[in-house]
Q: What sequence folds into this?
């Protein structure tokens, strides 16, 4: 632990230096438990994505203490979690050839370090660099089922050919573990029904492709889709998959409430900020939280912008510079006497992932006091 932050263990939240990212322990635990129960009910393995929190504690909670079966978004995360005793780690970015040596080191170190591929070029690179006796590259074929980011389209004949090449080209060196799709297009939805329609379409596309593979004699043991919206309200068809990989659900955020993934009371994350200025001539409060502690994500995507101000629906965060925030009344005048200098406001961020990336420590609290300090990994 960092000695500069250790001293806040046991401190009341109102004493924390601001801006401060806080997490309510009871909500974290409930969110983790509900997702595990939801997946168990469908007979699915949960492979939580750790990119939101990037902490050992969060991954321990999400995996139910098993420390197995996680998804990472950076190689820095992969090394961090490997050093922390986690195994069965899937690096969910199409293989970057310039970082093959780092991937090789992790594949040698772990029982199961797994990669995504979506091109023959990446497959050729793995074959040119075999891991040696007793080790194989473990590969998932990345599918694009409508998200439009990375992956091969499952209806494209080249997808079948690539899967066949992975599975059958050099099986003693490269193994096809399964197919992986991220239904990130659920984030463009406006209600649960629309989210479920995308989850269903993605699931069916993945399952149809797996059927095509098996009919072609290509073994494909695993099939995975995921996003927090789709996994918060799963459709019955998802029970035919083998696993799912949501990530944001441990914290949730304002965006997830707008998508219908959760209720506001289930959101575990807040950013505490202090009032540091009164400006009656422009009817504004100034707070010590700028975009460097919140991010600008959501600024043009939600009525409340980058964050909602908990308990004060009459207030709105209207401006963010690097270290300052401007707060106004939605209607009428700010009641300045209600918000004296030094008073604390709790911001519910639009996007927990972007907000968490701004903070070097998370203050986990119970009954108004800090009970844990979580230190995320940073870098790529």
A:
């Amino acid at each position: 632990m960092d000695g500069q932050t250790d001293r806040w263990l046991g401190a009341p939240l109102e004493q924390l230096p601001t801006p401060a990212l806080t997490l309510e322990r009871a909500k974290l635990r409930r969110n983790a438990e509900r997702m595990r129960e939801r997946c168990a009910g469908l007979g699915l393995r949960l492979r939580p994505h750790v990119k939101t929190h990037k902490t050992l504690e969060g991954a321990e909670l999400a995996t139910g203490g098993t420390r197995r079966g996680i998804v990472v978004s950076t190689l820095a995360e992969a090394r961090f979690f490997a050093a922390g005793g986690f195994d069965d780690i899937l690096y969910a970015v199409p293989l970057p050839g310039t970082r093959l040596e780092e991937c090789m080191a992790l594949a040698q170190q772990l029982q199961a370090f797994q990669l995504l591929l979506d091109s023959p070029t990446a497959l050729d690179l793995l074959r040119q660099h075999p891991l040696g006796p007793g080790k194989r590259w473990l590969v998932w074929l990345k599918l694009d089922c409508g998200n439009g980011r990375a992956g091969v389209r499952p209806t494209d004949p080249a997808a079948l050919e690539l899967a066949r090449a992975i599975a059958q080209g050099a099986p003693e060196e490269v193994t096809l573990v399964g197919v992986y799709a991220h239904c990130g297009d659920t984030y463009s939805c406006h209600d649960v029904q629309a989210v479920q329609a995308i989850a269903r379409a993605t699931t069916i596309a993945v399952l149809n492709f797996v059927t095509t593979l098996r009919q072609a004699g290509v073994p494909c043991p695993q099939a995975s889709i995921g996003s927090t919206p789709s996994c918060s309200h799963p459709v019955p068809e998802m029970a035919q998959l083998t696993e799912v990989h949501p990530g944001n659900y441990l914290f949730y955020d304002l965006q997830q409430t707008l998508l219908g993934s959760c209720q506001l009371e289930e959101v575990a994350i807040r950013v505490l900020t202090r009032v540091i200025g009164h400006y009656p001539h422009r009817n504004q409060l100034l707070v010590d939280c700028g975009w460097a502690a919140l991010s600008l994500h959501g600024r043009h995507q939600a009525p409340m912008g980058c964050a909602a101000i908990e308990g004060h629906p009459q207030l709105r965060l209207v401006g963010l510079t690097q270290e300052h925030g401007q707060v106004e009344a939605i209607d009428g005048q700010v009641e300045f006497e209600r918000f004296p200098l030094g008073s604390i406001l709790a911001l519910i961020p639009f996007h927990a992932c972007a907000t968490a990336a701004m903070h070097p420590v998370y203050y986990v609290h119970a009954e108004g006091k800090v009970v844990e300090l979580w230190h995320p990994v940073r870098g790529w």
The mean pLDDT is 96. The radius of gyration is 22 Å. Residues 235 and 320 are 39 Å apart (CA to CA). The first helix runs from residue 3 to 6.
